[in-house]
Amino acid sequence: MGIVVTDSAVGVGAVTRLLRGEREHAGVALRYRSVLVSQHSIDRDAMWRWSEQPDDGSETAAILVAAVPLEVRGIEAVPREVAPGTLVFLHPHRAVSVTAVEAGTVMGAWVPWDTLDEIESGVDALAERIPVSALGSGLHAFLASLLGQSFARTPHTDDLVERLIAEMVFGVLLEAIPQSGVNLARATPDVERARSLILMRRADPEFGVAALARELYMSIRQLQRLFAAAESTPADDLRRSRVELARDLMSRSGHARLGVGEIATHAGFRDAAALRRAFAWAGLPSPLKLRNAHRH
């Protein structure tokens, strides 16, 4: 079952049906296109039952993070207590129960499974409890900021928030993959982590190779060697990812009025000239031609 809401104040019904909760109260539910962010009050000993969803392409996955301890019973079969602030992953094809050890609040990020299912290609099943990581802490802080403050919203910001949440959740799950479960035919885990960071940060024009190296605690030379083993370079991966983002923005009807300069900014380029150079590097027609083609 996917998340289907009509405005930013709705969506609680879909969340409640997925959780099948007892004494579950949603205080805030914010929709960012296909992604939903919510905050709930939960009573002590109240249980949420997350049921397996049909494999029909419309499934929803979720990440929960609570201000109180939770007891989770899922893939490991026995109940396991999860400390406050720890992320809990709800897989659309596995039944899980979540019980509040104390009364408190729980935040949730609800993401279409078809944006995440690639994560399971060639790996062991992910457990419900997600180990603590920098990406996980960042996701927690971002959700708290969205739910705790009021921001001016536009279709463009909603689109960017949707992408950021989906990409952060993807990165969190990627980091949680058991090392023994990685298919050796795929790129190394370090390259995958680097690429997940690129996906999350590509819309920021200030994010470059040096910033990527810092976030991975590597020197630039180490980062270059890492990508060389995958027959690429960090600069090429970042440029390619930004080109893909720009092309996707051009294809969306909600962005039809954006000029080339605005598309460049939203895609992480410093200006329209940088976007044109990147398109030429990728062997594409000029951004103006592609944008005009999508308008007709």
* Spatial order of the strands forming the largest sheet: 1-2-9-4-7-10
CATH architecture descriptor name of the largest domain: Sandwich
Mean pLDDT: 81
Strand content: 15-25%
**How many structural domains?**
2
* DSSP helix fraction: 25-40%
Q: Tell me the structural class.
A: alpha+beta
- Global outline: globular
| CATH topology type of the largest domain | Jelly Rolls
GO molecular function: DNA-binding transcription factor activity; sequence-specific DNA binding
Protein name: DNA-binding transcriptional activator FeaR
Keywords: DNA-binding, Transcription, Transcription regulation
Pfam families: HTH_18 (PF12833)
Would you give an account of this structure?
GO terms for molecular function: DNA-binding transcription factor activity; sequence-specific DNA binding. With 296 residues, the chain is of the alpha+beta class. The protein folds into 2 domains: 12-152, Jelly Rolls; 187-296, Orthogonal Bundle (Arc Repressor Mutant, subunit A). Helix content is 40%, strand content 19%. The protein has 10 helices and 10 strands. The protein has helices at 12-19, 134-148, 155-175, 189-201, 209-215, 220-229, 234-251, 260-266, 272-281, 287-295, and strands at residues 24-32, 35-42, 47-50, 60-66, 70-73, 80-82, 87-90, 96-100, 104-112, 129-130. A 6-stranded antiparallel β-sheet has the order 1-2-9-4-7-10, sandwiched between helices. Strands 3-8-5-6 form a 4-stranded antiparallel β-sheet, with no helix packed on it. α3 packs antiparallel against α4 (189-201) and α8 crosses α9. The longest helix is centred in the middle third of the chain and has 21 residues, at 155-175. Residues 1-12, 20-24 and 180-189 have low confidence and may be disordered.
